[in-house]
Amino acid sequence: MNPQQITVLGATGSIGLSTLDVIARHPGRYRAFALTGFTRLDELKALCLRFRPRYAVVPESGAARRLEDELHAAGLATRVLAGSEGLCEVAAHPEVDAVMAAIVGAAGLRPTLAAVEAGKKVLLANKEALVMSGALFMQAVRRSGAQLLPIDSEHNAIFQCLPSGYGQGLAAVGVRRILLTASGGPFRETPAAELADVTPAQACAHPNWSMGRKISVDSASMMNKGLELIEACWLFDARPAQVEVVVHPQSVIHSLVDYVDGSVLAQLGNPDMRTPIAHALAWPERIDSGVAPLDLFAIARLDFQAPDELRFPCLRLARQAAEAGGSAPAMLNAANEVAVAAFLDGRVRFPEIASIIGEVLQDEPVVTIDDLEAVLLADGQARARAEGWLRRHNR
Ligand code: NAD
Ligand code: MG
C-alpha cells in the first residue's frame, strides 16, 4: 500500500511538530505532502529538508521564492506557495489523504474548511475554526462526506468513549451527558486578588501540557475549556447543558461519557498529544505514538473539583455564547484572540481578558449565521470592538 499523503497545516507549531514525530515513526504508512509555517521559517526549512514534502506554504510570495530557491539549491523539488490561497490549495489537493488542521486561531478557518469541502480526512486541532463557524462547518462535513476526527485530547477521548452510531444523537445511543475534564491550568489555586499581577510567562507555564502560547493563555483563563465546550456541542451534537466541566488536575483522564444505565466510560493516558494524533491518523486501527505507557502506581491518585466560574469568568462567558448560538461563539472567539494577544504583549492584565470579551458580547447583537461572509463579519466586528476597548483604556 502506498503511504498516505498528509498535509500538516501549522507544521512548525506544537501540534504540527508532534504530528511530524508520529509520521516519522511510520514512514511506510504516512508521508508529509505539504508543510506550512507562518513565522519561524528557518524551522520550516529544516522540516522541509528532513521530510522532503511536495509543497510548503509561507505567508507571502517573497518568502516563498526565497525558501523555494534554498530548497532547490539543496536538491529538493518542493514547491513553495504563499498566503491563504496556498494554504487552501494544499488542504484540498487531490493527492492528499488527510489534513492535520493545526493552525492556531481564526487564521485556520479557510484552509480547514477547504479540507472539509474537499472531503478529506480532517484531523481537527484548530478548535477556533469550528467554534467560529459551527453549523456551517458541520453542514460542510455532511455534504462532502469528509471524515472529521478530533485531535483535542478531550474530544478525542469522548470520541473513543462513544459508540459508532452517535451521529443519530446522544439520546439514541443512551448517553446522559459528557464530562469534559479540565486541568484548571497554572492558576487553578491562585487567589482572585493575585490574578491581576500574573505575567505571560506564568500563564504559559502549564503544569501538565507543553503547548503554543495562545492556547496556554486560554488554559490559564479556562477560555480553552469554554471553547472546548462549544467544540463538543458541534462535534457530538450535544446541548450546552449536556456538557459538564470537571476540573481534574492530573490530566490523566482526558474526558468521560456518562450513560443512562449508570456506566461511565473514560479514556486515560499520559498528557502527550501524540496519543490523540496517532489515534486519529490511524483510526480505526492503532499505531505506536512514542508515548510512554501509563504508570498508574506512579500517578497514585486522581482528583476532581467543580470549576470556579467566579475566578474564571471566561468559562461562564463561553457557556453563555454557546447557549446564545448564532454569531455569539464567533464573537467570543474573536474578542478572546484580540485580548490574549494584548495580554501576551503586556498591554492588558490577565483579568481584563474576560472584561474585554464580556463587553464585546454585551455590545454586539447576536445575529444568525448563514454563510462564511456572516462569520467573517461577526469576527471583524468583535475584533473592532475589542480594539476599541484597548484604545479607550490607552493600551
Ligand atoms: P502553536 O502556536 O504552537 O502553532 C501554531 C501554528 O500555526 C504554527 O505553525 C504557526 O506558524 C501557524 N500560524 C500561526 N498564525 C498563522 C497565520 N495567521 N496563518 C497561517 N499559519 C499560522 O499552536 P499549537 O499549540 O500547536 O496549537 C495549534 C492549534 O491546536 C490551536 O488551535 C490549539 O487550540 C489546538 N490545540 C493544541 C493543543 C496543544 O497541545 N498544543 C491541544 C489541543 C488543541
Ligand atoms: Mg484540549
Automatic annotation (TrEMBL):
Residues the entry annotates as binding 1-deoxy-D-xylulose 5-phosphate: K127, S153, E154, S183, H206, S219, N224, K225, E228
InterPro entries recorded: DXP_reductoisomerase, DXP_reductoisomerase_C, DXP_reductoisomerase_N, DXPR_C, DXPR_C_sf, NAD(P)-bd_dom_sf
Binding positions for NADPH per the UniProt entry: T12, G13, S14, I15, N126, E128, G212
Segments forming domain 1-deoxy-D-xylulose 5-phosphate reductoisomerase C-terminal: 148-236
Involved pathway(s): Isoprenoid biosynthesis; isopentenyl diphosphate biosynthesis via DXP pathway; isopentenyl diphosphate from 1-deoxy-D-xylulose 5-phosphate: step 1/6
Domain of life: Bacteria
Domain 1-deoxy-D-xylulose 5-phosphate reductoisomerase N-terminal: residue ranges: 6-134
A GO molecular-function annotation: 1-deoxy-D-xylulose-5-phosphate reductoisomerase activity
PANTHER family hit by this protein: 1-DEOXY-D-XYLULOSE 5-PHOSPHATE REDUCTOISOMERASE, 1-DEOXY-D-XYLULOSE 5-PHOSPHATE REDUCTOISOMERASE, CHLOROPLASTIC
Protein name as it appears in the record: 1-deoxy-D-xylulose 5-phosphate reductoisomerase
Organism this protein belongs to: Azotobacter chroococcum NCIMB 8003
